[in-house]
Amino acid sequence: MLxxxxxxxxxxxxxxxxxxxxxxxxxxxxxxxxYAERVEAATGVKINVLGFDTGQGLPKGTGDYRDHPEIWSPxxxxxxxxxxxxxxxxxTELVLGDVAETLPDFVKNKLRAPxxxxxxxxxxxxxxxxxxxxLSLPERKTLFRTVIYLDDTETFLYHRFAGELLAVEEFxxxxxxxxxxxxxxxxxxxxxxxxxxxxxxHVCYDLEAID
Length: 211
Description:
The chain is α/β, with parallel strands linked by helices. It has a single domain (2-210), classed as Rossmann fold (3-Layer(aba) Sandwich), CATH 3.40.50. Helices cover 30% and strands 22% of the residues. The chain contains seven helices and seven strands. The chain has helices at residues 2-10, 27-43, 81-84, 99-109, 125-131, 133-136, 163-174, and strands at 15-21, 46-53, 92-96, 115-120, 142-150, 178-182, 201-206. It has a seven-stranded mixed beta sheet, sandwiched between helices. Helix 5 crosses helix 7 (163-174). The mean pLDDT is 94.
């Protein structure tokens, strides 16, 4: 999120949005809204926090290997809305429903500030593919470089022929002006350079923004 705020400052952008796809119990979304306060105070960039989830756990996937049915089942990671709602602050908005249905209208009519960071923790190929619409819709609002965290990519269970990694490959195949790559050099100059989560960091480049 701090990298996203720095990217915004370098582009003259004073307000950004950050989003989590796959809210489940809400721990990640609550962390985002806490970090948003700290990053906003440190940089002066206003940060809106968004959460996207079905509200009912993992949806039914494609039914084939691409959605890792050997790992995940429909209904995994349900949300307890009544417990999460009182913890959400005014800067945080939770959008419930299938993102393939909710994202197009949200991006076109409700997204106030460009996306600077997204966390993807929807597990399935099909859900990740749909979440990536926020980066590729014609009406998209993103920074030139949008930071991405892909949760389910760096263990023995995962490979680039299914799940989130396959969604990245498909995204790059079908989008000529927007591309996702690993965050190259992410470990440089960090006091915690051996942290496992650094291997999950990616960047989306909106190449059309510089035409």
